[in-house]
Amino acid sequence: MDMSFNTFLRHLREGCKNIFRNGWMSIASITSIVVSLFVLGVFVLLVVNVNQLADEVDSQVEIKVYLNLEVNEQMRGKMETEIGLMPEVSKITFISKEQGLKEFSESLGADGKALLEGFDKDHNPLPDTLSVEVVEATTVAHVADKISALNESHPEKPIMKVKYGEGAVEKLFKITRAVRNIGFIFVVGLGIMSMFLISNTIRVTILARRREIGIMKLVGATNYFIRWPFFIEGALIGGIGSLTTVGLLLFGYDQLFKAFSGDITLGIVLLPLSDIWMFLSALLLAIGILIGIWGSTVSIRKFLKV
Amino acid sequence: MELGRDNVIEMQDVWKTYKNGTNALQGVTVKIDRNEFVYVVGPSGAGKSTFMKLIYREEVPTKGQISVNGFNIGKLKPRKIPYVRRNIGVIFQDFRLLPRMTAYENVAFAMEVIETPKKVIKKRVMEVLDLVGLKNKAGREPDQLSGGEQQRIAIARAIVNNPAVIIADEPTGNLDPETSWGIMQLLDEINFRGTTIVMATHNKDIVNKMRKRVIAIEQGNIVRDQLRGEYGYEF
């Protein structure tokens, strides 16, 4: 297709002008793109966060074995060996009381230092801990029982307590898996749905302009000449729609993030905005522009056969 | 078919049967020379519109040959249609201006299509708007113009690329007598400057007063073809 630069500029100009010429029809198209992409974006954010949560839960399915304060190094080694012999166990990590205190302090965030003031090497209320990971998350309860039973064969009763989240962890684990899968299906479904919604809106606008296309052809315009401004208009509408959506989503997410991050008791940690904004913006912008172009070119095709 | 140099339009035994079985044209043969002004008259449904549509390649003949300005348009590939239409200016009863575009933009569109430089467009469009007497309304959109003014813009668009021929399908059909006369004077002037004009009309007064070539079509056939003819029907 040989098109002069002059004509290309003309198409760009016409594409922009058309958005204003069509007034509320353009607004309708942009709105439908914003609505669809917004829903899509919310689900993407949800899935990304649930994924993150699921990963965290996955790595947290572990059994904490708290040892009695009197347990010496030799006894501890014995326990590690005995637990390590269980076929369900994949990994044992020893967390000393000092290390435990440090981690606890860090998990409290900025306030940690102040709260734990006065506890140090000689005044440490935490026990030594063995962190046991299992091969199959579902065997956690069974393994925990087996570890508790080890106390029976030792008169010193070296184990103070065995903890593994008592079902809550397993339940959360199941839920996150489900949300992850359902969320993915939803995102795909919504993507397809928004394509139809948007192409329909664009089809209506072009239907209204069928007469115009007929007139353009009478004056001797080629199909390419007619198509270009529509193409550019579609891309612009998609771009404006997705940028609006990105703005709304990022602003809303930022507010949500700020509201949650101040409250650690909820236990929900959203991914920070800086981790996701690029991905989200690029994704929505690409989808928006593609849908805009796709909608306008597909819909115009059948009217060009005038 | 041999093409005479001066024949802008030639039809050779042209038949047109529509899909619903209507025989709109039945063996029409006609030649229209450069510079001619031709009225096409006849009762409604006699085939006038089909005759016009075949010239600007809105319809394809079922049988026969048509050449317009040297193009054998019966055998034209769809891809080539736009290039033929650029040599033909069309004017309709319902004006067919692009809505939401100003008068200037409407006329300029026909020049943008053939990739004319912007500067040339500006000069030529203003020239043509001046010719039709609407230079001062260049910035108005069609719905801000009267019927007569809209038709003048349509005429400006039709002539802006200096076509060899103008096809006018009842251009005064929606206008009052006085406005119609204004339009006819304008078309006469354009014809005087060298453009062939083929105009279908039901307007008895105009045909009888202007005395140009008249082609009467009835039941798909040319039943009368006279120079300086009359309308010949009561309505």
**How much β-strand is present in the residues of chain B?**
25-35%
The helix-strand sequence of chain B is: EEEHEEHEHHHEHEHEE
Characterize the quaternary organization of these chains: heterodimer
Q: Please count the beta strands of chain B (DSSP E, at least 2 residues each).
A: 10
Keywords (chain B): ATP-binding, Cell cycle, Cell division, Cell membrane, Membrane, Nucleotide-binding
Membrane topology (chain B): Peripheral membrane protein
Function (chain B): Part of the ABC transporter FtsEX involved in cellular division.
Main location (chain B): membrane
Question: What would you note in describing this structure?
Answer:
- Chain A has helices at residues 5-21, 23-60, 73-84, 97-107, 112-115, 140-149, 168-208, 210-218, 223-261, 273-301, and strands at 62-67, 89-95, 129-134, 159-163.
- Chain A has 306 residues and is α+β, with helices and mostly antiparallel strands.
- Chain A folds into two domains: 5-57 and 170-304, no CATH class; 62-163, Alpha-Beta Plaits (2-Layer Sandwich), CATH 3.30.70.3040.
- A four-stranded antiparallel beta sheet of chain A has the order 2-3-1-4.
- The longest helix of chain A has 41 residues, at 168-208.
- Chain A is elongated and about 100 Å long.
- Chain B is α/β, with parallel strands linked by helices.
- Helices cover 31% and strands 26% of the residues of chain B.
- Chain B has helices at residues 48-55, 81-85, 103-112, 118-131, 147-159, 177-192, 204-210; strands spanning 7-17, 23-33, 37-41, 63-68, 71-72, 88-92, 165-169, 196-200, 213-218, 221-226.
- Chain B has a six-stranded mixed beta sheet with strand order 6-7-8-3-9-10, sandwiched between helices. Chain B has a four-stranded antiparallel beta sheet with strand order 2-1-4-5, covered by helices on one side.
- In chain B, β4 and β5 (71-72) form a beta hairpin.
- The mean pLDDT of chain B is 93.
- The chains are: A alpha+beta (306), B alpha/beta (235).
- Chain A binds chain B through residues 3-4, 6-7, 10, 21-22, 211-212, 214-222, 225, and chain B through 56, 58, 81-86, 90, 96-101, 109-110, 112-115, 117-118, 157.
- Chain A: Residues 185-291 form the ABC3 transporter permease C-terminal domain.
